[in-house]
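Ticket #4471: structure export looks truncated?
Reporter: QA, pipeline team
Priority: medium

Steps to reproduce: submit the single chain below to the structure queue and open the exported record.
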Amino acid sequence: MNFNPFSLANKHILVTGASSGIGRAIAIACSKMGASVIVTGRNVTELQNTLSMLEGEGHRSIQADLNSESDMDRLVNELPGLDGFVSNAGINRRMLCRYIKENDLDLIMKTNLTSPILLTKRLLKMKKINSGASVIFISSIAAYHSSIGDSVYSATKGAIVSYSKVLALELAASQVRVNTIQPGMIRTSLIENGPLSAEDYEKDEKKYPLARYGNPDEVAYAAVYLLSDTTSWMTGTGLVIDGGISLI
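Actual output as written to the record:
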């Protein structure tokens, strides 16, 4: 029996921020489901590492800094028509509201909000998003689940959720659906290199009803679900993957 409702065969999918963490896991999962994956990121070496982990053939890596307009234009020009677009690239710098500096504000806003919006604009203007495609923005439960020091990051993640809903309305006539994934804490290098000690993270992890943080694969499987044709009647919504922490 070969029935697989989550197959991504014959689909071209772009994943940004694919050089590590959630983006890498999404790219790998998409390749396993038969997609031709285009991965992009700033770190050439790590991007090539991601490319080497993909299953099947027909994949590509395109180095680009999405905060650079020229890099963004070059990326879009090199792309085929897309059946899926996962906007995952992002950063976080935790700081108390009283210590926010304008350069930190500008960088986080540009990386997490402005660049994804402008990249989407370019993809649409250059007709790179096919009819029936699926667009996913990786947001966060930080959009509505507050934590000290996370104000700017939370603001960007809330804004991308609002933007995605409007985009979903605007693209509905083309049968292009737009959704977000809103993870809780995921074990990536951001934790390993984060501001807290291992003991602090372990203590925080125990607050989750399911008693652990998530892992990148669990977000990747949600992305496969949204990219597949099983969700062809699903748009303007968000999948929360947070171990139940937002229930508290």
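Status: closed, not a bug. The export was complete when the record was re-opened. Leaving a note from the reviewer for reference: The domain at 12-236 is CATH 3.40.50.720 (Rossmann fold).
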